[in-house]
Design goal:
Blueprint: H1 15-23, E1 28-31, H2 41-49, E2 57-64, E3 67-74, E4 78-79, H3 81-87, E5 93-95, H4 98-105, E6 122-126, E7 135-141, E8 144-148, H5 150-157, E9 160-162, E10 165-166
Parallel strand pairs: 3-6, 6-9
Antiparallel strand pairs: 1-8, 2-3, 2-5, 4-10, 7-8
Length: 167
């Protein structure tokens, strides 16, 4: 898919798209009609965008040794909590309380983006992202995805890139 710069005004103005625009990062915005009855936000995005599930990444918030940490992994797989803890030098990781994740990031579940968070959390991007020229992540609300290069995502979030996903 072609990448092009969007203005914050034209992009829907989520904190994620505002951050991308402010950084001068090339991205493409993909909007689709979100179905509240959909059992999986990620799978819904894959189907709506017609993109391979290994190119659509979900943003998960975990608690690593008492510190909220963002994990960005392919929709097609799962987060390996042990690998996430190891990637940030921690001992133990568990999924964060959804209310704490929403409160800290400023986003709602199913729309949490690794970009433009209320409080910037340390981020780990699954190494498989590097296999693709571009990946899709949440743009900050359900039914809105942003496509960008994995290198740009890692740079903007100061992400550690590590193998944290599993099939």
């Amino acid at each position: 898919m072609a990448k092009k710069q969007k203005s914050a005004k034209n992009s829907g103005g989520t904190p994620a798209t505002v951050a991308l625009t402010a950084a001068g990062t090339a991205f493409t915005l993909h909007a689709y009609e979100h179905d509240p009855a959909s059992p999986s936000y990620g799978e819904e995005a894959v189907e709506a965008l017609g993109v391979s599930p290994d190119r659509v990444f979900k943003t998960l918030v975990a608690d690593v040794d008492g510190e909220l940490t963002v994990a960005v992994v392919p929709v097609a797989g799962q987060l390996d909590l042990k690998a996430l803890a190891s990637a940030v030098g921690g001992k133990r990781a568990a999924m964060a309380d959804p209310a704490a994740a929403e409160r800290t990031t400023g986003y709602v579940r199913g729309g949490i983006s690794p970009l433009g968070q209320r409080k910037r959390l340390r981020t780990v991007l699954d190494a498989s992202a590097s296999d693709h020229a571009s990946i899709c992540i949440s743009a900050g609300r359900r039914g809105l995805e942003v496509e960008l290069s994995p290198a740009d995502l890692a740079a903007l979030t100061s992400a550690v890139v590590a193998p944290i996903g599993r099939a």
